[in-house]
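To the wet lab folks,

You asked to see what we're planning to order before we commit. Fair enough. Below is the target structure as tokens, and below that is the sequence we designed to fit it. If anything looks off to you, flag it before the synthesis order goes out.
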């Protein structure tokens, strides 16, 4: 289940997806790298794993 009763909501796909969208809005360039956005997110939030980041990108892709 995507929405759970987790005590740490910063590790939810919805939260990470919102951070990804916010970072994409701030990028001036049309081209960007997978790891560039991940590194930018790691500067804001320390404990983002590659798996959670990848799942959040998949979720955004499914949303369109």
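Sequence we intend to order:
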């Amino acid at each position: 289940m995507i929405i759970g009763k987790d005590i740490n909501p910063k590790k939810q796909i919805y939260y990470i997806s919102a951070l990804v969208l916010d970072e994409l809005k701030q990028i001036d360039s049309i081209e960007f790298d997978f790891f560039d956005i991940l590194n930018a997110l790691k500067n804001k939030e320390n404990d983002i794993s590659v798996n959670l980041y990848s799942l959040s990108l998949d979720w955004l892709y499914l949303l369109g």
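Structural context that might help your review: The chain has a mean pLDDT of 83. The CA atoms of residues 2 and 12 lie 7 Å apart.

Thanks,
Computational group
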